[in-house]
Amino acid sequence: MQQVRTPHVVVVMGVAGTGKTTIGPLLAARLGVPYAEGDDFHPQANIAKMSAGTPLTDDDRWPWLDAIGRWAHDRHGLGGVVSSSALKRSYRDRLRAEAPGVVFVHLTGDRALIEDRMSHRQGHFMPTALLDSQFATLQPLEADEAGVSVDVSGDPGEITERAVAALQKLAQPSL
């Protein structure tokens, strides 16, 4: 597969279990840019809360989003892919405040499919019990936000190719 170079920083977003950690690195490889795992930006206190099945508050999320935003800012003009749930518009606004040029890839899918995938993954701190709170919090991308929605049915390669194709269409000026 041919690499598609991009100067953009792409935030792969969506509820837990949509495949951000799987699709993010694959997308980064296709785009020829580095990948950063959003979970790595969480302070230990956040991980402990989520591991215990306690949803994070906005106050818990602000430092995490700021850290991701700083990474994205530092990659401006160079390109990169980073994962972040970015479930609320206010979270995406916070990321754009740090890195105005970010583009979002919203991984979307049927709740049953996502729950099934979550139940089969190992070594992750996010329990399936928090999936309902994730869906309740989710505010899909709005028309004025730079980004695309990509369905997560199929295998990771198919999902990645849909994301690349959607990003390419987004980058083309409309006639």
Task: Sum this structure up briefly.
The chain contains 7 helices and 5 strands. With 175 residues, the protein is an alpha/beta fold. It is globular, with a radius of gyration of 15 Å.
Tell me the β content.
Answer: 5-15%
The residue-averaged pLDDT reads 88
The computed structural class is alpha/beta
Strand order of the largest sheet: 2-3-1-4-5
Radius of gyration: 15 Å
Description:
The protein is an alpha/beta fold and 175 residues long. It contains seven helices and five strands; from the N terminus they run βαβααβαβααβα. It has helices at 20-31, 44-51, 58-74, 89-98, 111-120, 131-137, 156-171, and strands spanning 9-13, 35-36, 80-83, 103-108, 147-151. α1 crosses α7 (156-171).
Detail the topology: elements first, then pairings.
Blueprint: E1 9-13, H1 20-31, E2 35-36, H2 44-51, H3 58-74, E3 80-83, H4 89-98, E4 103-108, H5 111-120, H6 131-137, E5 147-151, H7 156-171
